[in-house]
Amino acid sequence: MRKLSLKQQIFADEYIITGNATKSAIKAGYSEKYANTNASKLLQNTTIKAYIEKRLAELKKERTLTMEEALELTSSIARGEPQAFTSREKDPKTGKVLKEEISEFSAGFKERNQALEHFYKINAAFIDKQQLEVSEVPTFIDDISGDDDG
């Protein structure tokens, strides 16, 4: 696969964020005239297209919890353990972190109870009741031999 130029990479990264090819091309440094008429051609470039697809797959993988991670998080919330989360403010051009803030949150009773119910459902601790309707009338067959019915 051919290597992207810096301009193409910036275009592709911006396109992943905005979904707008024209604005992404302008932000990457292409002229407004070029961006208005040729932004869609940039998306058809096989090298750019492959890069975008690869980055989207990577981002999806990074953002998706594994089942183990989900169960650990659910258990942690159910126990009432504080949950830490990070807020980051990034420079849109360089991607550098400008400001980072770490905060904690402890789940209340309602959230802890919901986490427990979720955990139990996942681990099949609850059995859902089901109501069945019989649409046919049962037929009884007398297969006991003998003359007496009694």
How would you characterize the overall build of this protein?
The protein is mainly alpha-helical. It has two domains: 58 residues, Arc Repressor Mutant, subunit A; 56 residues, no CATH class. The chain is 53% helix and 11% strand. It contains six helices and two strands; from the N terminus they run αααααββα. It has a two-stranded antiparallel sheet. β1 and β2 form a beta hairpin. α2 packs across α3. It is elongated. The mean pLDDT is 85.
Helices, strands, pairings?
Blueprint: H1 6-18, H2 21-28, H3 32-44, H4 46-63, H5 67-79, E1 83-90, E2 97-105, H6 109-122
Antiparallel strand pairs: 1-2
Question: Which H/E pattern describes the elements?
Answer: HHHHHEEH
CATH topology of the largest domain: Arc Repressor Mutant, subunit A
Q: How many H/I helical runs?
A: 6
Per CATH, the class of the largest domain reads: Mainly Alpha
Number of strands: 2
Helix/sheet category? mainly alpha
Name the overall outline: elongated
N-end to C-end Cα span: 87 Å
Helix content percent band: 40-55%
**Tally of structural domains:** 2
What is the radius of gyration? 30 Å
CATH architecture identity of the largest domain: Orthogonal Bundle
Brief summary:
Helix content is 53%, strand content 11%. The protein contains six helices and two strands. The mean pLDDT is 85.
Main features:
150 residues, mainly alpha, Arc Repressor Mutant, subunit A, 2 domains, two-stranded antiparallel ribbon, 6 helices
